[in-house]
Amino acid sequence: MESEKQAFVESLKLRTKHFALRLIKMFQLLPKTDEARIIGKQLLRSATSVAANYRAANRARSQAEFYAKIVIVVEEADETLFWLEILEESNIVSKDKLKEIKQDSKEILKIISAIKNKYIPKKLSLIESNS
């Protein structure tokens, strides 16, 4: 069971890292306009943060520290999806070119959100149930 969990963690680390690398390559291909560069830099920052913070979460010293890092990963994954939507809806990048990366972004967000929901610290779940 523990080896399965470790294999999952390692595969998600690799997936988020490859996701960040794909977005770096996409950033390099963006038009050289001011708006594309500004949005692209925001996208680059959030996408690389997903990978870096997921990696950091798995080095957490406590469940509370893990949860705090996973919350950041969820926020950054959602922000990444937002910037991809902005690139599409502003017609900076075509819908067809973003289809795969947006799908990957949604899947990563869904996976990380499920992890976050599974590891809600006991103190936090007690507070929420009393509200």
SSE order and pairing:
Layout: H1 2-29, H2 34-57, H3 63-89, H4 95-118, H5 122-130
Helix pairs in contact: 1-2, 1-4, 2-3, 3-4
- Write down the domain tally: 1
CATH-defined architecture? Up-down Bundle
H and E order:
HHHHH
Rounded to the nearest angstrom, the radius of gyration is: 16 Å
Query: What's the CATH superfamily, by name?
Result: 23S rRNA-intervening sequence
Number of helices: 5
What's the CATH class label?
A: Mainly Alpha
The percent of residues in helical segments reads over 70%
Q: Beta fraction of the residues?
A: under 5%
CATH topology, anyone? de novo design (two linked rop proteins)
In the predicted model, the low-confidence regions spanning at least 5 consecutive residues are none
What is the global morphology?
elongated
Question: Structural class of the secondary elements?
Answer: mainly alpha
**Terminal Cα span:** 35 Å
Number of strands: 0
Largest sheet descriptor:
none
The overall pLDDT, averaged over residues, is 92
